[in-house]
Amino acid sequence: MRLRLYCNRYEHFKDALVCSVNCAYRTRCGDFALFYDDNRTATDALVEDYLERRRGGARPSHVTSEATLNTNSLVRLEVKREMAEAAYIWINSDDRAELLETQEVLRRAERGAKAKHIYRVAQEMELRFQLVPRKRIEKARRAADVEAERATARRSRLRSVPAVAEPEISRVAATPPPAESSTAVPLATTTSRRRSRTTKAKVAGGR
User: Fold this and answer.
1) Alpha-carbon dihedral sign for residues 95, 96, 98, 102
2) 54 shares its domain with 30
3) How many structural domains are present in the chain?
4) Are residues 43 and 89 in the same domain?
5) How many CA atoms, within 13 angstroms, populate the side-chain half-sphere of residue 125?
């Protein structure tokens, strides 16, 4: 499956080879910078295979115009490793170059040998594709990290703010006063009956 990425500039998915060798915004595109940083080995292999087919006269499936393809702009010298101990390039009178260690250079000097030029080597270099400048990749990565932090902060703020619940109104049902029983006797009637009974008792006693 070929490498593809979404292009926010043209708003559609593009083949990584098109972005690598045919897009005018290749070195300025933040989306491609992040994609290339994450998929550099696979992207470099895709470009190398494409260039090999062009050199062999084959017509690649993804055709690019001669005017837009500049191979020199795709390749850079990069540091492969720092030398643990500095080495020296010894160039003799016949312009023949040799890579020597420090002790060998000193032994030749003791024997009276003279070099036409001596250069000190501290790094081992290699030629590699560099479709996006390293500084551009670092800038795009910093911008992506800042945006990710902001998105995380927004999500955390949304989680921390509780939902405002509507105040629950306690509905206390009004308790109606107890209904008077139909058999209940009014207090005034009961009192009058008691008084009449007492009067009748006194009258009967008087007799």
Assistant:
1) negative
2) yes
3) 2
4) no
5) 8
CA-to-CA dists, residue 110 to 92, 95, 114, 144, 180, angstroms: 16, 21, 10, 59, 134
Residues 6+ apart with CB under 8 A from 205: none
What lies within 8 Å, CB to CB, of 87 at 6+ separation is 99, 100, 101, 102, 120, 121
**CA 11: distance to chain centroid?**
20
Residues 68, 82 share a domain: no
Query: Which residue segment(s) compose the domain that 115 sits in?
Result: 75-134
Domain membership flag for residue 9: yes
Domain boundary among 134, 150, 179: 134
Least confident interval from 115-124, 150-159, 182-191: 182-191
Amino acid at 153: A
The answer to whether residue 151 scores a pLDDT higher than 50 is yes
Residues 6 or more apart in contact with residue 25 via CB below 8 angstroms:
9, 32
Whether residues 58 and 84 fall in one domain: no
Q: What's the pTM value of the predicted model, to 2 decimals? A: 0.59
Is the model's pLDDT at 116 over the cut of 50? yes
Q: For residues 133-156, give the mean pLDDT.
A: 92
Structure tokens at 102: 């420090």
Give the Cα separation of 17 and 10 in Å (integer). 16
